[in-house]
Input
Amino acid sequence: MKELTVFFVSDHTGVTAAAVGKSLLSQFRGLEYKTLTIPFIDTPDKAHALVSRIRESPRAMVISTITDQLIRTELKQCDIPVFDVFEAFSEPMSAFLGVAPAATAGQTHGMSNSYDTRMDAVNFALAVDDGLNPERLGEADLILVGVSRAGKTPVSLYLALQYGRKAANYPLTPDDLGAPTLPEVLLAHKAKLRGLTLAPERLAQIRNERLPGSHYSSLENCRNEIRAAEKMLTASGVPVIESTRKSVEEIAALIVHGS
Output
């Protein structure tokens, strides 16, 4: 069977189309396909040109978040399946609510107060990454704590970009792990602390990609560090998330909604 090409088509950034599409496609195990995100299809002429491109694919489908009806109609001229997210949900919701949708592109990710909040949070996360500027921890909404390479930086940046949360992250060093309690600078903000941990085998794998064959990346050292960190966090009453088999998105959602 010819390889399937899935086009994620949007009149804005394509983030929503790709997120929805990938989530749906993940339900079909064993399916082999490649994806192409096509953003900013915001005129009928652009849609017409895209239709010509799609027709060149031997086997394809489209997942679309186009809002403008004229552009959506043009896109459907490609004679392949077009799964229209807004058509599936917006029209039934409009009938129920009794309000017509605005059909304005980019409402989810637009330039707004929310955007400014998220950018401020990203800048904050970078400024306090990996224990930098600990005097600014009081500004944080959340402080992620764990051993080195436990995934704190990507989660803190995702919390900033997706949720607008000012998330600091603080690595527990070998010196910290040898102490009887968490560092004082963290205990001063105890209510904001969230611990991240993972399986020692996974941590050793991650560290070996950075410093192969080192004591830092050895399985024994990883086991000892994780054991000490978990004991310290639990003793201080800090919620701890086990992240071995969780994506950054899942970890962030658990932090925001589950703790």
Remarks:
- The chain has two domains: 4-97, 113-257.
- The chain has eleven helices and eight strands.
- The CA atoms of residues 142 and 167 lie 5 Å apart.
- The mean pLDDT is 92.
